[in-house]
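Example complex used in Figure S2.
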Amino acid sequence: MESRIERLCVERGVKMTGQRRVIARVLSDTEDHPDVEELYRRATRLDSHISIATVYRTVRLFEEKGILERHDFGGTRARYEPSEHGHHHHLIDIETGKVIEFQDAEHEDLMRVVASRLGFELVSLRLELFGRKQKSAPRGRAAPPARKPSK
Amino acid sequence: MESRIERLCVERGVKMTGQRRVIARVLSDTEDHPDVEELYRRATRLDSHISIATVYRTVRLFEEKGILERHDFGGTRARYEPSEHGHHHHLIDIETGKVIEFQDAEHEDLMRVVASRLGFELVSLRLELFGRKQKSAPRGRAAPPARKPSK
DNA sequence: ATAGGTGCAAAGCATTTGCCGCGGT
DNA sequence: ACCGCGGCAAATGCTTTGCACCTAT
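Predicted assembly (302 residues):
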């Protein structure tokens, strides 16, 4: 069945192929912010005949078409999410690397004013918070996910 | 004479060498946000016996010591600035790559609240605006579009 | 004296690309 | 049929590192 992202691709005149369909499906099912490596892993799970070069090319194409957004959360590789999640910002858990999304309606307007005051027209902005979980209410400590220290 | 950054290094127990002194001086004179390549260029102008590997190592060391801040303004290489410029954010001119600094006092407090509401303790944040110069030039001398695509 | 810094070239990593056979429209 | 796509491996671009020498403390 045609995935959400695949529909978007067709609308925007992207030629669909087997590999792109698989990647589109993976992305449609995505709730997080995977990097290319992870997308590749998920894609090959559905169809093992996909090379990582294709994932790179596709992710790039989708980004140009405005279907995907690329982020750089301070780690070493770029991470992606479907654009259709609406405008929001990110809070990155510095211990686990997990990303939480949040919105702040007035923020953008405020920044538009700031930019304007400096003589600029605001085109886009990046707002990211880095924090760690509050230890205030220590409940059943679930095992903290191991995570390479970013380096 | 001992440069501002060199003094900082000594305070923080960084062993000073000829190369580090040169790099410290370059950084002390820095008003912009150069990348390693550019720092290397400036450093070798003062003393041609510095290798780019040393610049990379030094910049890394200084960052760990809190003397330098590393930024990634969307380009391909990391860019640096002395920490002692105080807290501020950046507006990047998407046509020229030039970076303008601005402050927004209440912003951080606001973000602390946002983080807290999500159950996180705010450690740091990144706020970057991307914009282009306003063309609505009031009268005569409208500055012609700059075309230098770098820093 | 000696722990640590430096230069050089090679290695590492994420990402891109050349070549060329193959597949979608 | 035709143009673009995908696989593979080689190339790239930034950054790190191994090794052998050198220097600040």
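Residues 15-18, 35-37, 52-53, 56-57, 60, 76-78 of chain A lie near DNA strand C (CB under 10 Å from a C1'). Chain A has a mean pLDDT of 88.
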